[in-house]
């Protein structure tokens, strides 16, 4: 039932996630997108894509997305993190990483892997049923 693509970005990575969404806009427009509050707001404002917004990272938005992953509602996650200067109020990668690994959901943590994951999803959009993993 995995239907959504989750988008999360630390503050310093928000310009990168916006650029990524612009580059994959046509493909992402065909997906149901979910994001943390400020990331989702920026994506909507700057790309025109519709995004379901959960709480901000500091208020548990990353955990809300984790719950969706555990409920088999997320087919891929892009979590562009800033490994060098992340702030305490920003979402924590560890819980998302763990639940993605437990549920075999692809997780991209940098722009290179994000492009690979979204590129693969773009290729699969024409396929009616995805093979079970």
UniProtKB/TrEMBL annotation:
The active site is at 62 (proton donor/acceptor). SMART domains: MGS (SM00851). It is an enzyme of class 4 (lyase). Its EC number is 4.2.3.3. Pfam families: MGS. GO terms for molecular function: methylglyoxal synthase activity. GO terms for biological process: methylglyoxal biosynthetic process. Substrate binds at residues 10, 14, 56-57, 89. Belongs to the methylglyoxal synthase family. This is Methylglyoxal synthase. It comes from Candidatus Cryosericum terrychapinii. The gene is mgsA.
């Amino acid at each position: 039932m995995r239907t959504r693509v989750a988008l999360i970005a630390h503050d310093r990575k928000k310009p990168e996630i916006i650029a990524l969404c612009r580059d994959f806009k046509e493909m992402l427009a065909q997906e149901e997108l979910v994001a943390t509050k400020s990331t989702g707001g920026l994506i909507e404002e700057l790309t025109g894509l519709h995004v379901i917004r959960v709480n901000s990272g500091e208020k548990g938005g990353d955990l809300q997305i984790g719950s969706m992953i555990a409920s088999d509602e997320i087919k891929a996650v892009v979590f562009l993190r800033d490994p060098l200067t992340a702030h305490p109020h920003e979402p924590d990668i560890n819980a998302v990483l763990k639940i993605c690994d437990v549920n075999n959901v692809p997780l991209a943590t940098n722009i290179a892997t994000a492009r690979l994951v979204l590129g693969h999803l773009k290729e699969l959009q024409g396929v009616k049923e995805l093979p079970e993993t």
